[in-house]
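Design job #97: recover the sequence.
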């Protein structure tokens, strides 16, 4: 019926989206959901180009970055993806995911995400460790990163897309910029306080 997989997927997704009354949040995960799965590249992928053209504009498209588990995200990469998908992507961040190897647990701060990404994102989802208690630092430091991004977007000199893009590939610690080390220290203080609070609960 359909000349390509992308057109089939877009047709079904559009129909479901419309049948549901075009909800404000409707996410589509493409078969090519990171750069390493694209052939030959995101900007030249016939599959992604078709999705960008065919999917209704209200549908958010999930993207994990350069790889399934991406160590870094840059504004340059997101700009390329935005161009081919004709919308800002929703980042599904697998930085802390350990469902593929449960012998590993990731306890470090949210890092490798360049400052100034907010204008390039439609949303960001964090795929955490399978172990609930291990996610205090990941979620706490993600919150610190997010708050810093909001403050940056609110500054007059960071309001424009051009400035945000220029900052996007800088990992420098400018004044007021997100510091993974500082975020980690704040998270540890709060985590110790939470552990102590739970230890004092009756029955603990």
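Job complete. Output follows.
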């Amino acid at each position: 019926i359909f000349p390509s997989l992308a057109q089939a997927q877009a047709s079904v997704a559009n129909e479901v989206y419309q049948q549901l009354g075009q909800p404000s949040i409707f996410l589509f995960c493409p078969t090519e959901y990171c750069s390493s799965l694209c052939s030959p590249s995101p900007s030249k992928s016939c599959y992604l180009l078709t999705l960008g053209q065919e999917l209704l504009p209200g549908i958010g498209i999930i993207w994990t970055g350069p790889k399934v588990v991406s160590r870094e995200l840059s504004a340059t990469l997101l700009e390329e993806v935005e161009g081919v998908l004709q919308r800002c992507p929703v980042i599904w961040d697998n930085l802390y995911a350990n469902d593929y190897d449960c012998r590993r647990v990731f306890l470090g701060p949210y890092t490798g995400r360049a400052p100034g990404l907010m204008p390039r994102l439609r949303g960001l989802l964090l795929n955490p460790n399978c172990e609930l208690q291990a996610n205090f630092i990941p979620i706490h430091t993600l919150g610190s990163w997010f708050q810093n991004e909001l403050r940056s977007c609110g500054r007059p000199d960071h309001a424009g897309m051009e400035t945000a893009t220029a900052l996007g590939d800088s990992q420098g610690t400018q004044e007021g910029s997100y510091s993974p080390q500082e975020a980690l220290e704040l998270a540890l203080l709060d985590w110790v306080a939470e552990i102590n609070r739970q230890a004092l609960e009756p029955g603990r």
